[in-house]
Amino acid sequence: MLTKLTLSMDNEVIITAKEYAITHEVSLSRLVERYFSYLSQESIEIKSNTPIVDGLLGIAKNHNKEINSKTLLKTALNKKFLK
């Protein structure tokens, strides 16, 4: 069931999000829905890596053994989308 949601955001964020949605051929509503869905997941599963990611795996050292790659990914995505 679809339900309407009204959001208030900084104008620059909205402009950037609309540009991103157009570039990736997805509606802004679908983009927000995907992000909220991502946030609600308990664990992040990376099913396959691109060749670039495969080439970069292991070159950076994680000195804090308590933080795993899933936590690092979630932190990076939060910084990117929740500035």
SS content category = mainly alpha
What percentage of residues falls in helices of 4 or more residues?
A: 40-55%
First-to-last CA distance: 30 Å
Low-confidence stretches: none
Summed up:
This protein is 54% helix and 0% strand. The protein has four helices and no strands.
Key words describing this protein structure:
elongated; 83 residues; mainly alpha
Could you explain how this protein is built, in words?
The protein has 83 residues and is an all-alpha fold. The chain is built from four helices and no strands. It has helices at 11-23, 28-40, 51-56, 69-81. The longest helix has 13 residues, at 11-23. It is elongated, with a radius of gyration of 16 Å.
Strand and helix map with partners:
Blueprint: H1 11-23, H2 28-40, H3 51-56, H4 69-81
